[in-house]
Design brief:
92 residues; alpha+beta; Alpha-Beta Plaits; 4-stranded antiparallel beta sheet; globular
């Protein structure tokens, strides 16, 4: 039985800016998405699940624990677009 690692996207004004980047950083700090993930999920599990589900390559995964659960900030490789993934999952 396969378990779901990615629960749902976490969408706030800050995470929307992380998709495209901020003007003060010349839009170079973007291309990131944030998801709420299972509490027992590891970085490598999140990376593998994201790459399989969206057919993209992940550059790195950062994890943070918050009151509402475990969050994964996923940075995509340069050749892929976080905004395009956002469109596919209905964030925009």
């Amino acid at each position: 039985m396969r378990r779901t690692v990615l629960l749902h996207p976490y969408v706030t004004e800050k995470t929307m800016n992380a998709m495209s980047g901020t003007p003060s950083q010349d839009l170079k700090d973007g291309n990131r998405l944030e998801f709420v993930v299972r509490k027992d999920a590891t970085r490598s599990e999140v990376k593998r699940a994201f790459e399989e589900r969206f057919e993209v390559k992940v550059d790195r995964v950062n994890i943070k624990i918050m009151k509402d659960g475990k969050h994964a900030i996923i940075k995509l490789k340069e050749e892929y677009s976080a905004e395009e993934i956002g469109m596919r999952i209905g964030i925009f």
